[in-house]
């Protein structure tokens, strides 16, 4: 009897052991190496030297570009995650309704997410070209504009285009996360709310959003991590030009490590990014869980 109890007690951990080992080898161990490198001297050839304390962090933070890069990163993450969540929620609400061609519409929505980000960014890079871009050609042919517009006149406009592309490719992920939550809501809740005289907005804010909040929480946290670490869109469209004014933290540390050969500060920046992500994701989870508890 005791043997059976012991076996049942340890059996879940045995089944979890392969996953724990994989996480340790491919996640925990590499993170530990990065932290070690951030506090070490690294030559241009990539040779790791001795312990240098916070020297790499001081060098990275004291760089005049650091403030611009962090501001860009904040704008990039907030705009892409915020607008894609709002628009994805609206699209999910539409796709949750019964209408002819709904399956085709769902298939179309998933295309931007299923396509490579490099391909997406390259297509949009071509679309907004001044000389022969499709956007100018379409607007000229429709008579909406009289002459071609330089859609990349300033780095601010270019960065806005990058954010727009980021929103476009992120909407499908939010849409299907929210859609899965919407489809799990029992129709009886809406029927009861309608009987009580609730209008569309009251049903939305008092039934739909509270019940779909777990799906929104998961999609938002994953989106924050995914968008923060997104590299292909910005690198493909501008490569951070001019003078790192369109760089985010991820693209900047890449340029720092492999173009400028300053691997120590680049590693320090990766640690800073990791800490920021942990704090932001943790705070968001805490607020969301507290809100769910209040609603319950």
Question: What does this entry look like structurally?
Answer:
- The longest helix has 37 residues, at 2-38.
- The protein is flat and about 70 Å long.
- The chain has helices spanning 2-38, 55-62, 65-95, 102-114, 117-127, 134-141, 155-183, 187-195, 200-228, 232-237, 249-258, 263-295, and strands at residues 40-42, 48-51.
- Helix 1 (2-38) crosses helix 12, helix 2 crosses helix 12 (263-295) and helix 7 (155-183) packs across helix 9.
- The protein has a two-stranded antiparallel sheet.
- A hairpin with a 5-residue loop joins strand 1 and strand 2.
- With 296 residues, it is mainly α.
- The model has no long low-confidence stretch (mean pLDDT 89).
Shape: flat
**Largest β-sheet summary:** 2 strands, antiparallel
Mean pLDDT: 89
The total count of helices amounts to 12
The termini sit apart by 41 Å
What portion of residues belong to β-strands? under 5%
Low-confidence stretches: none
Estimated structural class: mainly alpha
Would you list the SSEs in sequence order as H and E? Answer: HEEHHHHHHHHHHH
Q: Round the Cα radius of gyration to an integer and report it.
A: 24 Å
Number of strands: 2
Order of the strands making up the biggest sheet: 1-2
Helix content: over 70%
